[in-house]
């Protein structure tokens, strides 16, 4: 895109006010702002895709509960994005190159060059897949050492993390793959499209009872994205030496909670040799290259899928977040910022 084609004003979506309880449309504010041009060492990016994620809801609360600072009212919201370089003087980046960054709730982003990462379109069948939330799901499967014959439980299996974690667990040899989700239609898709052997549906009876029926011999590996009752149920059904990775707490995040409490039977944990570890992408950036290599290769070879929803127009982003938190989507949720 040449300079003459650049707009003079562009849209961005801001946090109108911190969210203390229920997230509502009025917590978002769409504004038009002047387009700022890149100086030396800066990159002007035309955003193409924004990833909508539950963590955005948590960061809209006033208190700090995550390693990242909460969003500030009157400022554009953040989120992983794929974009195209417009101009980047003195950086080595060329106009037209694809890049990733974390400032997606706006049509254009002006960033320091250190805040963007090149994306190689030849690596990905669809470059949108570089926005997958699956890194932490892959990390959980990798760190728990899923091996042949394991019974693996993935809570929140229909989310952007769970859909990828389940696939990698199967590739690593899981003998029985069990998921949890919030609706029957998602359970059917997980079985039909992603190879889950059984899917437990929230609200269709106690999760612990459903799990005991689906895994009568117990669970070897837990990838937990939900927390609460589902985490407790998994531990109650854990086999000796079970390995558990906690990678999210969407059960509380969806309702605006900033704490995710669960009761642990520490006697059962130590006597059963059960391990529990918390994993975040931020703490494991050294593994990002291996994750991308394995995920992109699996996509190219047809061994893996990238389940996602794609919505058109930046204005769809607030509704996409509300729908995500209400459990109305399957896989990663993407918004095309220009339409």
UniProtKB/TrEMBL annotation:
InterPro entries in UniProt: ADH-like_C, ADH_N_2, ER, GroES-like_sf, NAD(P)-bd_dom_sf, Quin_OxRdtase/zeta-crystal_CS, Zn-ADH-like_protein
GO MF term set: oxidoreductase activity; zinc ion binding
Ranges of residues in domain Enoyl reductase (ER): 21-335
Name assigned to this protein: NADP-dependent oxidoreductase
Organism: Streptomyces rhizosphaericus
